[in-house]
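Sat 14:20. Reprocessing the chain from the morning session after the first attempt stalled halfway. Input below, unchanged.
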Amino acid sequence: MIRRTFIALAAAATVFAGTSAMADGHGKDIVDTAVGAGSFNTLVAAVSAAGLVDTLKGKGPFTVFAPTDEAFADLPDGTVEMLLKPENKDKLVSILTYHVVPTKVMAEDVAGQTVSAVTVNGDKLMVDGRKGVMINDAEVIQADIMASNGIIHVVDKVILPEG
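Finished this time. Tokens:
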């Protein structure tokens, strides 16, 4: 049932996909890029359920730390299902916007240093680029996936805001 819900929401997000600007020479925006990758079905479903599709299809630039489907599956049983319920939309929005920085940050921009970044939800992330790139306790497993309105870095964990 939940798997079908993810697929249905991912399909709904695809319907929202329109023609995006060709900024940076990349034709697909962040949402279309995530949908096309095939490894972010849960993230796309959550973005749709949170009402953030239009935002992430916006002008940007955005940097999105995108958890894989496996990262969502590693959350405690029932967590994703609970977050997708309409009554938990505010919490879902807070978690998802904690994965977004309202500027374009390439991996090379943080190489060799530790910095903090203010996310769209207003909280800070710690970015450690001294040995690979870590975002709080999540590892960037694929960096610098370009989109017309920003960049995606794939992370191996869902990053939860404190509190």
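The two ends are 30 Å apart (CA to CA).
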